[in-house]
Amino acid sequence: MIADIVVGLSFGDEGKGKVTHQLLKSGKYTHCLRYNGSNNAGHTIYHKGEKFVLHSIPMGVFFGVKSIIGAGCVVNLEQFFSEIEMLEEGGIPTEGLVCIANSAHVITDEHLEEDGKEFSIGTTKKGNGPAYRDKYARTGTRAEAVEALNDYTVDLYKELHSASPTVVLLEGAQGFGLDIDWGDYPYVTSSHCTSAGALLNGIPPFSVRKVYGVAKAYETYVGAKKFEPDSPIFQKLRDVGNEYGATTGRPRQCNWTNLSLLEKAAKINGITDLIINKVDVMREVGEWNLRFDDSMITRLQEEEAWKNYIRYFFNKKIRNLTIYFSETPERI
Ligand code: IMP
Ligand code: MG
């Protein structure tokens, strides 16, 4: 098996979908697996000129690649079937391509109702937290126990460790700053967003080839804690970057990139490649700032100085890291 991982380095919404989409275009993958989260995530993609929003089904399906909702995920059945329908109606075949790991858990109406009354963390209200709680309390329901999912459930061992070699693209949801263990608890999601979470889906560590860490040129966060400093510049970032949630429509709070946090996320995830998206948004806003944990802000004069600062910073910290600055919504 060969495995590549796409992981979020910030608070979700870094543009992982774009990176996944571009990697899949290479045609070298046999499987695409979503390794954590649920329909709390939202991926908007333009495929052959048509707009699709996916919340739970991995993007491999657009390329005829077997697409698995992994063991680390929780699934809303209604959402799952409506995505299947939406894809079929959009001319994307799903039969035999979309599957769910036997041991993925199910989000129930009770989970949804409970999460709907949640305000202190600012969840997406999709029942994600309660479903994971019940999984770990051993009172939840696995996908394999649901009759309606009979045609979709798979054994990850059989699927990924079969005789023919598999090349798996592992697609993460959310990001390091929302990780259950590494994020700013309790302002986190309930799953393992790091590359370690990808391995929990039956991936042997030695099979990992590339870890693509995805960040934005600035940071955004959606949830109950205060994240955005008081300055009109961040409203400008929000508007230029269209930083409004794909799942809930909520405005995302903005701030400059915290390089200390990015370094930590890069090291803990063991990234081989760093993709920094939305440089075009920074250009339009016209300020080139970075910050550090101790809230010191470094103001760079212009784009190239800002990029060089980041390159120099990571060159000193991580060996052989390839850095991409992306300035279009379509590609890296
Ligand atoms: P939950 O995952 O719905 O329980 O929400 C927990 C926290 O994670 C909240 O701050 C959400 O806004 C945030 N969150 C969950 N999924 C995403 C995502 O896909 N993008 C950005 N934030 C997310
Ligand atoms: Mg998103």
Give a description of the structure:
This protein is α/β, with parallel strands linked by helices. It is built from ten helices and 17 strands. Strands 9-7-5-2-10-1-11-14-17 form a nine-stranded parallel β-sheet, sandwiched between helices. A four-stranded mixed β-sheet has the order 12-13-15-16. The protein has a two-stranded antiparallel sheet with strand order 3-4. Strand 3 and strand 4 form a beta hairpin. Helix 3 packs across helix 4 and helix 7 packs across helix 9. The relative contact order is 0.17. The model has no long low-confidence stretch (mean pLDDT 96). Magnesium ion (MG) binds next to loops.
In short:
The chain is an alpha/beta fold and 332 residues long.
Task: For the structure shown, list the relevant keywords.
single chain, 332 residues, alpha/beta, nine-stranded parallel beta sheet, four-stranded mixed beta sheet, binds inosinic acid, binds magnesium ion
Assembly state here?
single chain
Order of helices and strands: EHEEEEEHEEHHEHEHEEHEHEHEEHE
Rounded Rg: 19 Å
| Strand elements, count | 17
Q: What class would the helix/strand composition place it in?
A: alpha/beta
Q: Helix segment count?
A: 10
Q: Could you report the average pLDDT, rounded to the nearest whole number?
A: 96
Helix proportion range: 25-40%
- Provide the low-confidence segments as ranges: none
Compounds present?
Answer: inosinic acid, magnesium ion
Strand content: 15-25%
Q: Terminal Cα separation, in Å?
A: 26 Å
Side by side, the strands of the main sheet go 9-7-5-2-10-1-11-14-17
Envelope shape: globular
Biggest sheet details: 9 strands, parallel
